[in-house]
Amino acid sequence: MDRADARARDWAEIQERMLVPLYEAVYERLDVGRHTRLLGLGCGSGLALLMAAARGATVTGVDLDERRLALARERLLPEPQRGTTGCSAQAQLLCGGPERAYQHTGSLYTMVTAFEPATPRTELAPALIDAARLAGRGSPVVLAGWGPPERCATARVLRMAERLAEPGRRPGSEPARVSGRDDLEELARAAGLGLDGSGRVACPFAYPDMDSAVRGLFSTGLFDQAVAASDRTQVEKELTEALHPYRHPDGTVRMDNVFRYLIARV
């Protein structure tokens, strides 16, 4: 398994589950069920889609990372239908942006989600505009991001990544950081969406050991700029040091975080 495949597997097996409380809170609030036709932007390895499908929803996921999508297909599609254009009666998984869904939808979506907080706003804004065209009028569009920095232990770790990345950061690129207070609202307005409420959810990052913590955090992509400006060995060393205050006597690592979601409407 090469490093890129290992990273996708680390996301699916270690990190993605940290956001389960967020998915559950959103689906419960919006009553996701058999009546729901959901489009997931940046669906990754498909855990959020799997949870929606378990509630009876019909789901479509798009993502630019083919490796993560391959893992999503393992979760959501019967084995004969796991090709790169794989779909079933309840799930479709497509590599690309929401424009791919134009070719596969027979009717409008009733809900759009963008749960991945690591996606740069410069990439997400145009995707939201395209996705909104595929949703019925009044349909919810859910955006998610980090909560207040003072309530996110991981914010302290990301400041280390931002410091290491700064010398090599490209002009116009976004640093790895938690969300600003009004980032989600600004993103929704830029996509022409109306605001319709928000919520906060506790999403602790808990790992069985330090190795799992480092691998899980690396799988998010939040440390890519730091690695490009330095080297992976140096970033791993500094990440391990930054995580030390969150390591418990039994070897487990836990960082308490709050995530925020915004409900907008088409």
Automatic annotation (TrEMBL):
The keyword Phosphoprotein does not apply. Pfam families: Methyltransf_25 (PF13649). Keywords: Methyltransferase, Transferase. It comes from the Bacteria. InterPro entries: Methyltransf_25, SAM-dependent_MTases_sf. GO terms for biological process: methylation. Residues 39-78 form the Methyltransferase domain. This is Methyltransferase domain-containing protein.
